[in-house]
């Protein structure tokens, strides 16, 4: 009998010990992060899948990215259409690596032309007739996120719906945002100018390789210097099918860069892709002029600060995007806007491929010069 009692006591003690041990049915944070990282590596076919040391290093960066993403999404989400941040193809890069890889390709001049005075492109500037437009749109100073009161402008413009916007490009390892944004905008304006509005995608690769005037090919360039060069040289941009280069980052030299290079006489874009005039100026307090041009003329080019786009998945950017001129590091095309949205926004065409953001596009809130989007804008007029 005593043995039975002792056995029961042992069983009772062991049972109580197990009951006192906390059981966690959820996977640990590290295990969950590792699972996400394994999926990420396969999804983006990362080259270090077989390198254990590099794999471990990138995993630690990835875990840091997860923490940053969590903080971005928890802060100041006042509207359902506020930007959403998450895992992108850049989640295994440090911020320094991301800047060097994606944002080291814009080489803007100093405001006002720098110490050397105004640049030559000023003679091509399209004069602004803004006095009669001042009251067309009123941005609220009381509430920074207030819907602008718009008069005499359509509340929504999206040139993609007109079939005049080319596919989203992927600059990859070539720092060519300065050329892609300008060339894609010129292609859209040429299509708008033609009566049939037929889009002819143009060869930005040739422009990357040939543009002089301080531009450095895949090592970076400047939208205003490029426009100046296109106008000065009367350079005709050929159709995309005329491109000879398919991998700019790996090829050197051997290219004829004359103004007629790669352009057939029967090419319908021959006469429509000559730049006649362009602007390169700031509209920090006059974004209504940007909207006016988008509505009446077509897409425009803008320099932006895209450092916070590293984890962008979609929605309207309203925060986390500094607007200082000195921080401009990327060039994009703006192809429309929506003032009917809860948070009015620009439709921004990026050059990081269709898998980035909203099928390659970014939405940036209107009226606050977010991301410096109004600091350095180019309106383009074709011959």
UniProtKB/TrEMBL annotation:
Keywords: Disulfide bond, Hydrolase, Membrane, Protease, Thiol protease, Transmembrane, Transmembrane helix, Zymogen. It holds the Pfam family Inhibitor_I29. The keyword ATP-binding does not apply. Residues 153-381 form the Peptidase C1A papain C-terminal domain. Coiled coil: none annotated. Residues 37-98 form the Cathepsin propeptide inhibitor domain. One of its GO terms (molecular function) is cysteine-type endopeptidase activity. CDD domains: Peptidase_C1A. GO terms for cellular component: extracellular space; lysosome. One of its GO terms (biological process) is proteolysis involved in protein catabolic process. Belongs to the peptidase C1 family. This is AGAP002720-PA. It comes from Anopheles gambiae.
